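User: I've been trying to design a sequence by hand for this structure and keep getting stuck. Would you show me what you'd pick, starting by listing the structure so we're on the same page?

Assistant: Good idea, let's start from the same input. This is the structure you sent:
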């Protein structure tokens, strides 16, 4: 019995070690490959981040240009607009599920929202190409519907379930005593929601928003199918452009291994990895801040209770 327990203990520890080691190995690999742009081909980080001159040489000699500002700006604009579109709908759905119709929301809306997570990204991209792009082309009377707006709408639908589920869990974790106290003071349902519940769940909601933004930055296939893939800064939300993930997905398989072009694409992948780490760091900071606030409130409540008990004892 003890040998069996030790075997399972070893297996669990091994799986945990692999889970910890895998992102570290991936990070080291990306750092080694992504740094070739700067160490082997002697390009500067400033050129890579802020120049729009993208013409890397597809050979081992180098001498090209690796300015990826167009890709970075395309990623920032599409992800930012997707966030602006998705967050209001996600908040409305989360509040409906938890505060307005919790029973019906958990039985109907929550499974429907979670169903979005299981849909492959190529399906989102295909639906965007066949339905959304022609619709935008017709309604705005433009030559083509591919562009920032199409990509942002597709991304907004894709990150909607992630933000909604995390926000709903955060709202649900607010203790009922806070709601009852607000109702006892004469507050209406909507006053309780936007003045008590949402502020109390703010940290968890922001974690969901950051998580959705991280997914938006990492999405490649669906965005590549509707963004237009034009290497230029967008003049507006209807203009086509491109982004980091689209460039990596479309070009990585056709360039020379170890060449300057290949190294520049690995640098893009390293940039995306660092952005993901930044988002994870922000989420952990938010969670730590919320935990410290809860402990502080608990300590203040204990001190207040002790002071009240001492006052009652003195009387």
């Amino acid at each position: 019995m003890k040998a069996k327990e030790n075997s399972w203990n070893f297996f669990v520890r091994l799986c945990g070690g692999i889970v910890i080691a895998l992102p570290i190995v991936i990070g080291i690999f990306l750092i080694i490959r992504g740094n070739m742009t700067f160490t082997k081909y002697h390009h500067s980080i400033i050129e890579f981040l802020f120049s729009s001159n993208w013409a890397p040489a597809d050979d081992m000699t180098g001498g090209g240009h690796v300015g990826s500002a167009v890709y970075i700006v395309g990623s920032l604009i599409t992800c930012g607009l997707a966030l602006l579109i998705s967050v209001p709908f996600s908040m409305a759905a989360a509040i409906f599920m938890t505060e307005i119709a919790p029973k019906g929301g958990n039985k109907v809306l929550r499974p429907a929202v979670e169903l979005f997570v299981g849909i492959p990204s190529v399906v989102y991209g295909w639906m965007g190409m066949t339905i959304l792009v022609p619709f935008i082309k017709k309604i705005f009377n433009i030559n083509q519907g591919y562009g920032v707006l199409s990509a942002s709408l597709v991304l907004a639908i894709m990150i909607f379930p992630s933000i909604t589920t995390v926000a709903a869990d955060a709202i649900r974790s607010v203790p009922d005593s806070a709601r009852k106290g607000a109702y006892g003071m004469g507050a209406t349902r909507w006053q309780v929601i936007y003045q008590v519940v949402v502020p109390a769940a703010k940290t968890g909601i922001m974690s969901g928003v950051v998580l959705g933004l991280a997914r938006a930055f990492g999405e490649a296939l669906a965005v590549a199918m509707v963004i237009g893939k034009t290497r230029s800064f967008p003049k507006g939300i209807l203009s086509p452009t491109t982004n980091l993930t689209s460039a990596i997905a479309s070009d990585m398989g056709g360039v020379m291994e170890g060449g300057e072009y290949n190294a520049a694409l690995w640098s893009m992948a390293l940039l995306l990895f660092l952005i993901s780490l930044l988002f994870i760091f922000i989420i952990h900071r938010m969670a730590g801040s919320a935990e410290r606030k809860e402990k502080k409130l608990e300590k203040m409540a204990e001190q207040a209770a002790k002071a009240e008990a001492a006052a009652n004892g003195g009387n």
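That's my pick for every position. To get oriented when you compare it with your attempt: The beta strands are 54-55, 65-66. The CA atoms of residues 7 and 13 lie 10 Å apart.
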